[in-house]
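Q: PH domain-containing protein, please. Structure only.
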Amino acid sequence: MSDWQRLDPKAVAVAAVLGAGVAGAAGVPTAAGIASGTSWPVALLWVVPPVVLLIVGAAVLEHVRWRRTQYRISADRAELHSGLVVLRRRTLTRDRIRSVDLTANPILRIFGLVAVRIGTGEQTDAGEGTLTLTPVTRAEGERLRQELLRGATTETDGTLAQLDPGWIRYAPTSFVVPVLGFGAGGAVMQVSQWFGLQEELIDWVQSLSSGVPLLFVLLILAALLMVVGVIGSLGLFVEMWWNYRLDREPGTLRVRRGLFTTRSISVEERRLRGVDVVEPLGARLLGAARVDAIATGLAQQTDDEKTDHKTLLPVAPKGLADRIAAAVLREEVAPTAAARLTPHPRAAFGRRLRIAVTVALVPVLLLTGLGVWLTGVLIQLAAVLAVLALPAAVLLARESYRSLGHGLTGNYLVTRSGALRRSTAALQRDGVIGWRIRQTIFQRRLGLATFSAVTAAGSGAYSIRDADADEGLVFAESAVPDLLTPFTTSITTG
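A: Structure for PH domain-containing protein:
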């Protein structure tokens, strides 16, 4: 039985630095607001004592947490004891551990530390399926990874992929661009309010746009925010994927990446059940895709991680994505590219067309109603939106229908669907533990149904959407023989 160990004592210094950052972020705008009504010396007298108290308090609380936290890795379990007031004892048996991920934000990297997240892949509200050790030294984190993932080493059997700087050209095609752009606009307005400059900012914009139609001004501002979003997406790509490498270690796939916050994510090959080749719309137009792992123990993270831990290859040329998918599965050709997919009935296209047009018309009608009530500018916006949205809705419905398909190749069941995010998933047939069949009243009238292959890996289910009801039953039975035999009465007669 191994001895109990403590976290690294530099945790106190890390907490003090974090406290200083929080105090500065809150103190600067507060001091500016006070100074605008009095003077800076008075503002500092009000702000500095709480800032010092916050920093000292953060360090003291972290020292207590460090004293009250200890962990132990034994032959059959990983244990963590922690708690400031109530002592918490948490245990994971070694055979349930599915992942050991190492993460280091910029502050941890300065001190040579990492956060170790030991997971079972089980999702519970209380997070009982994970143990997080924050912080430990990088050497200790690597030791824990090797010990808990049996067979993991620092040696590689070969590098499957590494960062090509040219992949950054796909970053602006992400749907995160408008989010970053309009988020930046909101941040500017908020900061200007902190410093009492919001009215001056609005007056400045109005003076620049005097004599220009309001609709044109709004379009220019939207374009500027999109440019900011593009720049932000480039920076986000560099932060997330700098120094990216996908290595095959004995029995393990390991992804390492990150500029400021570094991440090391390990996937045991014995837990791998397939791959998902994902083609977001913008990337697909440029002939690119990313590769995600379908593996047990890689469900979405429930902590403060901002990224998904299942991505093996970022958005890259589609040909490379297919080669990486094949290499990960140790196949000559990727099942996602080799399978001949069965097309879905034309009724599935009509269903998608009606939904897309309805969704496009809702904001148009809403803006029109508000325009009649408030201002004609909104009616102009509604007209512009209708001209842009309705054709786009038809094209997306058509693309969504063309993306539908399912098939079998070797030991893999392949499903494909999605227009804005086309997903082609290859799932091992022996990894399917059940089928979930769903048929709404509208699908029943069209003779369609959605068949979901249930698995313990990945997202938990991979769906064949709007397939012919009878053909889908036959396919499900042939994909996993005998699983549906007791229930193969036609759902179309229900």
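A: Brief note, in case it's useful. The radius of gyration is 27 Å.
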